[in-house]
Each structure stands twice: as structure tokens, then as C-alpha cells.
What we know:
Blueprint: E1 3-7, H1 12-24, E2 29-32, H2 38-47, E3 55-58, E4 63-66, H3 68-78, H4 90-118, H5 127-147, H6 161-173, H7 184-195, H8 197-206
Parallel strand pairs: 1-2
Antiparallel strand pairs: 1-3, 3-4
Helix pairs in contact: 1-3, 1-6, 1-8, 4-5, 4-6
Amino acid sequence: MNLQLLYHPLASFCWKVQIALYEIGTPFEALLLDLGDPRDSEELRSLWPLRKFPVLRDRERDQVVPETSIIIEYLDRHYAGTRPMIPRDPELALQERLWDRLFDFYVQLPMQKIVGDGMRPEGHRDAVGVSEARSMLHTLYCMLEKDLGASGWVGGSDFGMADCAAAPALFYAGTLESFEERYPRVAAYFDRLSDRPSVVRTIKEAQPYFHMYPGSAAIPARFLSATAVSFSRTAGAGF
């Protein structure tokens, strides 16, 4: 198989690329990594010194592609599906890329800040930083509530890269700062995302690992249909 995705099924940024791969329909091998294992950590470091996943390895083209948005653009260029993940129209493409960045930087990163801080020992937590992160989530909820168009997808008339970013961002952020009551358009958008086959498949594959997520108690019951698996090497899973 040409493509190999180095990932962890619980990691939110990995979901983004998985969703895109399932949308495009390109076969790939999924290689689960645990950064708490020295062998896995070193394998990832050898491919991408920043040691962040996901990383896409293209054996046929002898390419290693890091960073989620770059991976999706790479797939769009070399393994395109029936329609692009990024619109061909330059102006629409800018909108797609804008929302992709907004979800990554202003939903995913604040979410990770909150989760990561909760895993710190007492006396080493950053209450101010967490408060700022929670505030940022609501700022983005407000922006999304205002800007969601009639198409039902955030970047344009079709499901695209920004929606791939939105699904994991909103899934995890919603367990920390709910949008269900105060932001009805955001909630409806997340419901549409949750019904998308590529998103359904990605979440289903992650379900056995949800018990490893510190905020698992807040995951809606509709996403908890799988039996947890034993996976003791939990360090570095990411969210």
C-alpha cells in the first residue's frame, strides 16, 4: 500500500486527516504510535524531528508529509477524490483555509491547553491560561454561530478541509465548554458533521480508546457504543 498514516486514534489532529482520507477514498495503512514507547517515539522523530503526529508516508513518491493541513493539500494534489477538499476557486479556497486555521489554532489548541492543564499536578496548573482558553472557545463559537452559511458546511457549498478540522475540534471542545444550548447553529452543524460517514467511521475507530481521555465523562452517550481496549502505554496519545 502506497500511503501509511502514523497516528493515534484518540488524537484530534489525527482525526482531521483520517476524515479527509475517508472522504477522498484513498486506501492507506494506519500505523498506531504511542509516544510513550521509545521505539515508536524514535520512529516518528526519524521522519519528523518535531515528533508530532499525524505524519503521512508516501512510499510510491518517497515523500514524508507532516502537518494536517499540508497532508490534506498533498492528498488533494496527488490522490484527489471525486471532488476537492479545497475549492479550486481561489477566493473560496481562502475561506476554506481560513476556517481550517481557525479550528486548529483557536479551538484545538485552547482545548489541548485545558486538557493538558488538568493533567498537571497541583501547584503547577495555570488557572489564568485555562480561563483564557475557555474564553477563546466561546469567541470561536460566536464567530461560527454568526458565519455558518446556508450550505451547512463552513468553507462553502461542499464538505471540505475546514469541516475535517471542525469535526474533532468541536467534538473535544464540546466536552469542555458546551455549545449545545447557547449556540444552536453550531450544535446543528456538529450534528451534521457527526452524521457524515467519514466522521462516523473515525469516531467509531476511536471509541475503544475514549476511556484514556480525561474528559471522557462528558462525551455524549451516542458516541460510546464500543468496548474499551487495554492500552497501557498511554503517554503521548494527545487529544
